Amino acid sequence: MNIFNLRHELTGSITDIPLPEKIVLSLCGQRLYAGLDETVMAGQHIARSDRPGYGDLHSPVYGTIKKIDADSVTIRTLPGRTLPGKTLRDQEWMAPIEPDESDTQRLADDLNTLGIDTFDLHPAQTLIINGLNPEPGVTAFQRILAERRQPLLEGLAYATQLVQPGRIFVAVPEGSQRTLGPCDPLHIRPVYPNSLPQLVAKAATGSESMDDVVVLGVDRLLDMGRVRMRGLPATVRAITVQGMDYRVHIGTPAKDLLAHAGIAPVPGDKIVFGGPMRGQAQMSPDAPVQNDTYAVSLFAREEFLLFQDNPCCNCGECDRICPARIPVALMTRSCEFGKYSMALQYDIDACFECGMCAYVCPMQRPLVQYIRLGKSELAQSVAV
Ligand code: SF4
Ligand code: SF4
């Protein structure tokens, strides 16, 4: 079997997991205004985004705020209103809000208030709904497209108003008969990294420029559709856990999710948010699901590629495999030694972090980590 395969035979369907005892929400870019020991309803607006176009934060559960740190807030789920073993549908919710569709800017503002990011949904000639799984081993996107047709169509109404495209595609695997409302099917060979937005856009337009293209994953489209149908904020995600898909509250600790899936990590196992190519290893099993997490993966010690600061042996494997045709060895060495302006000359900006270079590097160099460091340093130097 091709280990880069992105299309899977689906069995079962997306299932809810019970409410966790506690939820931990990231306050990155958010200004919290709920206080310690305050009781909050499910869906209650508790923090406002500092960044224009990004979604605000809401409590996914009915509970009490038990801890506030510099970068997170912990909410303990209240018993009584959330019966043991019941799912997220059984909680006390805030009253719905209806976004204002009469004006595009007001619609974007209302979606931000309801927790939806819209910063990248700008007017463009081409809108592509990406229904391909983002990484090998992930099935959530394929399943959302198969099972959540009506909310996706509702979300498409918002996306169309924000982007005002001349043409809309839905990206699906080659051989798939699936379509979505008025979207033209865009058939893509389901092999990683073909599902990444830059490559999907190129498949649709023939151009490597993303200037007049918006690629929107079915996960965010589903959030938008739920908002349109229910007037309630985006507080749950469909997430793949070792081949099964679950509907999970944002903020659920990874260990609760793994326990529900019947998976018990042993010492040495790595918990990763995402898949094997782009995933981020977590320091603790308490790490909470974020609003962009699409998978929680567990890798045994022997399966996990251990990156080390080994020297480059100039084999050129990374350069050969890079789909963005970047001189990867030179660019990552520039980052490694803090020469970030040189990394810019070697097209670090064109990198879409597919992870293929790190996968093939025989020296197991942490190439994507170097790249992320370089991008972050360059972003900070622009901001100063
Ligand atoms: S992660 Fe590596 S292979 Fe992928 S685009 Fe960036 S430099 Fe190229
Ligand atoms: S694959 Fe690794 S060792 Fe080979 S040139 Fe690239 S960075 Fe150097």
- The pLDDT mean sits at 91
Number of strands: 17
Unreliable residue stretches: 80-90
Kindly report how far apart the N and C termini lie.
Answer: 49 Å
Helix content: 25-40%
Content-based structural category: alpha/beta
Shape: globular
Radius of gyration: 21 Å
Q: Strand order, biggest sheet?
A: 1-14-13-17-15-16
Bound molecules: iron/sulfur cluster
Report the β-strand fraction as a percent range: 15-25%
SSE ordering: EEEEEEEEHEHHEEHEHEEHEEEHHHHH
Description:
The chain has 384 residues and is of the alpha/beta class. Among the domains are: 74 residues, OB fold (Dihydrolipoamide Acetyltransferase, E2P), CATH 2.40.50; 64 residues, Ubiquitin-like (UB roll); 67 residues, no CATH class. The chain has 11 helices and 17 strands. The strands form 4 sheets. A 6-stranded mixed β-sheet has the order 1-14-13-17-15-16, with helices on both faces. A 4-stranded antiparallel β-sheet has the order 2-8-7-4, with no helix packed on it. A hairpin with a 7-residue loop joins strand 5 and strand 6. Helix 3 packs across helix 5 and helix 8 crosses helix 11. The protein is globular. It starts with 14 loop residues before the first strand and ends with a helix. It binds iron/sulfur cluster (2 copies). One iron/sulfur cluster binds next to helix 7 and helix 8.
